[in-house]
Amino acid sequence: MIGVVVCGVGGRMGNLVVATVKEDPDLVMVGGLAHEGHPCIGMDAGMAAGCGTLEVAVTNNLNELVAGCDVLIDFSVPVFSLKNLEVCGLNGKAIVIGSTGFTAEEMGVVREISRDIPVVLSPNMSVGVNAVFRILRDTAKILGDDFEVEIVEAHHRLKKDSPSGTAIRMGEVVAESLGRDFSKVARYHRQGVCGERSKKEIGMQTVRGGDIVGDHTVYFIGMGERIEITHRAHTRDMFSRGAVKAAKWVINQDSGLYDMQDVLGLQ
Q: Is 20 helix (H, G, I), strand (E, B) or coil?
């Protein structure tokens, strides 16, 4: 059995991961984490997640749990993910991170620690989204510079980062296929008389509202035709299933930084 610690118990994604781990015959939950002051601290992790008793208490101290686990699954925010990553690095434990919104400096820390342990970090754990990444890569190569690229993403009103990590990764995938530096060609804002659209920019547009789980559309727009590639998430279950798939995969890997393309063999 693979021992799993879940970070973010009491949150939307953390609770789903707890339930998914409970259902998997190859996994056993050995600990649950929540941030200091969260009302679920001290509760049974299963009860906190709404999936029945697991006889595992929720704590805010990973050091109490890390010795008995094989892998940590973390859907939180970068500041907590980095702290958990550091503990895993010091203790030689694998980690799966689904948090988004990392800065370039924070990603540098992730890469440094991944020299010592296997790390899966993906802005989207969905199998479908990762299939779309592959489709985007191939489509961009076929179309080349003859089609302009625009990316539109929509999420619920509570999402903290913008654009989504998935949208940014879509932009990076397209830019890499076209031989462009995404950080230089991404266009996040248009207002007023901003001039003609440059040929190589990649537009990034954001919609926030209601309870949208996650919609992403990439437009390849040419003269007289356009291609629209869309992924719509109906529930968050797919993210937890992908994270569990990644957790079962990463424990057998050498130290390094991986993503879901690696997990699914799509590289």
A: helix
What is the tens place of the pLDDT at every residue in 6-38? 999 988 889 999 999 999 999 999 999 998 888
Contact 56, 29 (CB under 8 A): yes
Instruction: Please give the CATH number for the structural domain made up of 2-121+236-263.
Output: 3.40.50.720
| Structure-token match 């926030």, residue found | 208
- Structural fold of domain 127-233: Dihydrodipicolinate Reductase; domain 2 (3.30.360)
- Kindly list the catalytic residues: 155, 159
Mean pLDDT of 107-114: 97
| Distance of alpha carbon 220 from alpha carbon 228, whole angstroms | 6
For the cut 80, the answer to whether the pLDDT of residue 237 exceeds it is: yes
